[in-house]
## 1
Amino acid sequence: MLIDTHCHLDPNYFPEGEDAVLERAREAGVEAFVVIGVGEDLGPARFAAGLAARRPDVWASVGLHPHDARVLDGPMEDELERLARESRVRAVGEIGLDYHYMHSPRETQKEVFRRMIALARRVQKPIVVHTREAAEDTITVLEEEGAREVGGIIHCFSEDRPFAERALALGFDLSFSGIVTFKNARAIHEVAAWAPPERILVETDSPYLAPIPLRGKRCEPAYVVHTARRVAELRGERFDELAARTTENARRRFGLA
């Protein structure tokens, strides 16, 4: 059995309803889910927290994606903190830096990233980090803001081994998405093969990044099986061993019962 440690299940992504999506995943061998609540408003965060309260196999993480950093104000931050304190909300995120699309100005992204780390430290929950084309600034902000105190996950890991080593030293685990199944993702293959066994997780980032052999389709939590199989192959391990280890790691990192 596997845990999908990062999926977006907002109704606009899955009009058939989240319960149908999760049942397909359970049939595929996925036993639990961390649902991410981020968006331009508080709707996705409230949705994720509500779903976690309703379903015993779901936990939530809430935050503000770097794309949306420009919208943060005091009332929104207060509500995110309130939601983050709920017992079924197990992390703050995804938060971080994304210099690829630049939907929010770079300095605004860094300021909001710092504020979200401070929020995570106040509620004493781990951080789910999004980083794209911003590796050095991501590490710098994590170091300067004391993120080691709560640790967390580098979600959808897409950097290289030197970055991985620095993230691991800060207390962050590495979560692999469908990108690890792509042929040209050689740096990610290297990290997946090398990373300490107790520090790896698997995810879908659904509805994005469907793995081979489903690339191009809408991704969903059931597909994490393909990602886990590829990570096991890269590490020279049996699939059932990899599944058991990543599930144990996820339960420890998120404090799942």
Note: The chain has a mean pLDDT of 97.
## 2
Amino acid sequence: MTRRLTTIKDIAKALGISVATVSRAMRDTYDVSAETRKLVLDAAAKMNYRPNFNATGLVKSGTHKIAVIIPAITNYYFSTVITGIQEYALEHNYQVMLYLTNDSAYWETKVVRELSLSSVDGLLACITSETSDFSHFEELVEADMPLVFFDRVPETVKTSVVVQDDYTGACMATEHLIAQGYSKIAHLAGPPGLNLTQQRLQGYLDTLKKHNLESYGVIHSGFSDENGREDISTLFRGASRPDAIFSVNDRKGFGVILWLREQGIKVGEEVGVIGFTNDPTSKIISPSLSTIAEPAYEIGRKSCEVLIRHIQKQSYPKQAISLPTELIVRESTQRGVYGKGYGLHSKPV
């Protein structure tokens, strides 16, 4: 078994001082005495603490580098977020260091714990779908490291967040299905521990309740098209089959559409399907997928803007920013050639 690396939290506990003091001592800031700094450095050496110091990392004016931790880069949403982050960072003379976790809580923890506080000025993070212990992020907050979460955010770490309005988006998706005449609506949800999963599920349930409708099933799983195939297959093995599916994201929606077609079930006419992302594939799959468009590029820019404000001003207040989503109506929710209308706040594409 791999031995856990010593963290600055371990050093702080051993010396009986705060994590923030240890962090400042290692960066040799003006408000830490030479005696305290020596105490910290001696303890770090004895405890085999190995920060990744680099030549520019100890410069008090900062590195002008920010770290970005994301679960994946191969899907549309994250690649678009990264574009927004990088453009804003470059406009403000910051370099972006990208770290991929492959949606693994182990790799996320390893990346964060081995990230040198002296090599970057701040961190943008999107947690994995399996992360349940957030102590590695809490250690950064205690060490005064500027930290902003985007998209997938933990509720327990008290720092700035930038997200899309998942709850309202889910309400719009469910309202649209009801407006199209569907009444037996199921929800293919994401992993239960994620804030976005909870918000989208709650929007779906509240909208059903508003219209005096019952849920025709909720299944929690991952975000892939294969998850979508497996989930819809499970639903259709039951006694009460849904006539519409609200998928937590587009990729699961793609899996649903492909499975329904393989079973000879007419998408739209017999079973409506709506997703959440506005992935470019949603336009070209047949039938095209109705969806809730997420402002991925804007989330990237705004999260980077908030992080840089925290870097430049330590007293900058915590932000909780929610950007609006938009209903995009396509063929997968149309009953007949024209359907029964586009529903509320819709934009046909």
Note: Residues 52-60, 337-346 have pLDDT under 50 and may be disordered.
## 3
Amino acid sequence: MLKGMDGDLLPIGQFARLGRLSVKQLRRYDELGLLVPAYVDEQTGYRYYRPAQAREALSIGLLRSLDVPLAVIGHVLSGATGVLAGVRDDLEAELARRRRTIRALERVMAEGLPSAQIRLVTEPARRVAIVRESAAGPQDIGRATSAAVARLTSSASGLLPVQLIGLFPIDMGEPVPIGVALVTGEPVSGAELDVLPGGVFACATHIGPYDQISLTAHALLSWCAEHGHPAHGPIREVYVSDPATTAPEQFVTHLMIPLEEQS
């Protein structure tokens, strides 16, 4: 123990045991300005801490055990209020995603690896209004798609009937550009008018929640590979059911992949 101007100072190893953190963690928190030593020896670089800093160290350990990011911990320690609400929301979103994953896994356990009846369909070119969004990654596609649907349907509330088509890339990088198209020849506020090319498509029908569409997409892509058809994007999801009046287990969605040069 070192006698400092303001009382006793503890070397980093002893303080690490007191604060239930590792020496490596303390060095990292010092670099981030999250938990700065009370004194650093200029000649040796050794770090020393006051015993009173143990409460702060223990608080950091507690918050990290609750999956609170370090950046947010800094705000908490500085006395900011309400910052943990965002962490809770993120954890709830992750929990919901995990539950969706479990449901998809249970379907695979019950039915085996995905398979679907594939049919070839010829589609005409369609005039559409498209809203585009960017998903941070594959796990964010659901949120981005819902946001695009909400933007599009709110602007096209007077256009009936509503036929929506999701547009998704074959390759899932980060970010993931997605689009939702409304079949219409009329201008829609906030959307770009475009034409979806026609042509021959491999088509599979998915019945069930939207968050399990990837299972049917797997079967459709596997069929294309097995039959020597290079997969061209975007993958189309034609939403048949009205979520307002249909149970998720009964949602009908047609998935389509173009097989030839579209016209």
Note: DSSP finds seven helices and twelve strands in the chain.
## 4
Amino acid sequence: MTTHTEAEIASQPDCWRRAVGAVPADALPQPGERVAVVGCGTSWFIAQAYAVLRERAGHGETDAFAASEAPSGRSYDRVLALTRSGTTTEVLELLRSAGTRTTAITADPDTPVMTLADRVVVLDFADEASVVQTRFATTQLALLRAHLGEDLTAAIADAERALAEPLAPELTAAEQFTFLGRGWSYGLALEAGLKMREACRAWTEAYPAMEYRHGPISIAGPGRITWMLGDAPGGLREEVEATGGTFLAGGLDPMAELVRVQRVAVARALAQGLDPDRPLHLTRSVILPAPETR
């Protein structure tokens, strides 16, 4: 029987098409605004990717923070909160005290974020039954990329390819994974590592690609995979392969490469008898008690 997570992963190309066709005119950050993007867990990593993309596109200074670590006293024109559930405590607390224009992207229109943010973009078609985020994370990034003026036609085609191609046996058998990214894809490398930890309890790490030589390559070796999301620095493949490790760089759009990682996470979970829909020790949203009881 297909799990919720498998079905949600498979639906991503269609979700991206729908998001690209429904970019809101004025709810998202506008060119020239100084923006803080916040989230928790997966949403924090998507925030990091978007922050790099927005600055690269020339739309303005953009910082990304875990919602619990956003600095106070720093001036922004807008806070953009990414929250699938619309109920995460740290995000809601930040919106209450933001002191500037706020926008939220969420999957659930029946949650507190709807009244706490000034503007809300609802991607309910990308909501998920699984605890593990897959399609909502990538769909909100597809929306944000389209808002920056990107054409996602090739990325969508790459995602379809990532879904259609069989997974190599070494991906389900590997002992360890290190995910690498450059620029905006570093946020996706962090998300790839998290997805593998959540779904199948894998030993994963993630680094900016140029930092990998500065220590982390010491764990490369037989049965271990170094997986590049995006273009790899010259010579890195050869250095990893010299250790006996496997170096992967699929050449797909990094967001589509993340889809392939999601598939591996589910395959490994099922092979171990784990339920990828309900990872150990996790819930859909972290809802903390009131501050006086924490």
Note: The mean pLDDT is 96.
